[in-house]
Amino acid sequence: MVIEPDELHEHIGKQKVLIGEDVSERLDVVPAKFRVIVTRRPKYAFKNEDGVIQAAAPAHIIEGGIPTEALLAQIAVSKYADGLPLYRQEAIYARDKVELDRKLMAQWMGKLGYELDILADYILAEIKKAERIFADETTLPTLAPGSGSAKTAWLWAYARDDRPFGGSGPPMVAYRFEDSRAGDRVARHLNGYRGILQVDGHGAYNKLARSDGGSDGVMLAGCWSHSRRKFYELHASDSSKIASETVELMAKLWEVEAAARGQSPDARVAARQATSAAVVTELFALWQKTLPRISGKSKLAEAIRYATSRRSIFERFLTDGRIELDSNIVERAIRPQTITRKNSLFAGSDGGASYCSSDDLLIIKGDFEPDPEISGAAIAWHRLRGARRRAGGRKFGRSRALRCIAGAPEGRRC
Question: What is the pTM of this model?
Fold first, then answer.
């Protein structure tokens, strides 16, 4: 936009010469706008010949439905990344004179999740190829059929991120819905995995641990952040000098981690042995000295027992540079789901909750932040649907289907 000066009476007959300009910038927004895309497919017949020719109908995620992939992306981002339930979206779209019933949008999201199941399985399989992965779980209230009330179900998250120890593997996260928090669920999810599993203190993970130091099971690594929180609560309320001392000592551990982040495993171990090992030894000595002197029912005793009972998995990071000090990577990945849970109150069914875990793949990027550019992922799946149509309904093998999602090379079909 260019704003020219007013033409005044005294300027008549004079020639203006541009000698410069002042430039300013302001942030503007173009509101989202609905539009209807009309597709016409002419039919042709040849003179004096039998038969009709017509272009094949383009493939869509919702076959025979009205939503484009961009609209599906808009609804999915709003629901899963921004925590905006479908009933709120229904009211927002109504302001633009567009009536989209929440039940219809729920069906669309279910279809999207169903179509993404193959991608969800693929990502979890890729995560299990990592040397070290993270796991966490959170509640997901789900409506119990026929009862009119919600039951407690669970959303499990599995993440890999090799960047802290200089790895080149792509960071990624996968989700799984279950109606239980039992150990057989995580055992099924991680079947065949034999690497490092970094987790909180949930007992379900202990069933996966190696019992004799062999290779039949995973190697558990602890999360120092979970232990720190218990002491920090006491420190924040100024109710325990031991807790305050613990928090101050733990701060040194994170200082070492910040300096060693991105370095090789050997370099990280060297840095930890130089500083962190002595801090860890001092912490456990402090806790062992304190525990007999305080009430066993106190919050401080509970925090100390939590740490001392897991000493072996807490100290494991000192000798293995691939292990992180905490499991914050997966906790950040699961945090958007807690916002969605709060705003939506509950999932409408087990099936709907299960598809949530697949739809989340669209909106979570490698660095585990909501990705507003999910339409590309939707279009990638749209490409696979088109490839299926060209194949005349023949089934694809998994590798061929995933190649279609990624995009076939130029000049080749999936």
Answer: 0.76
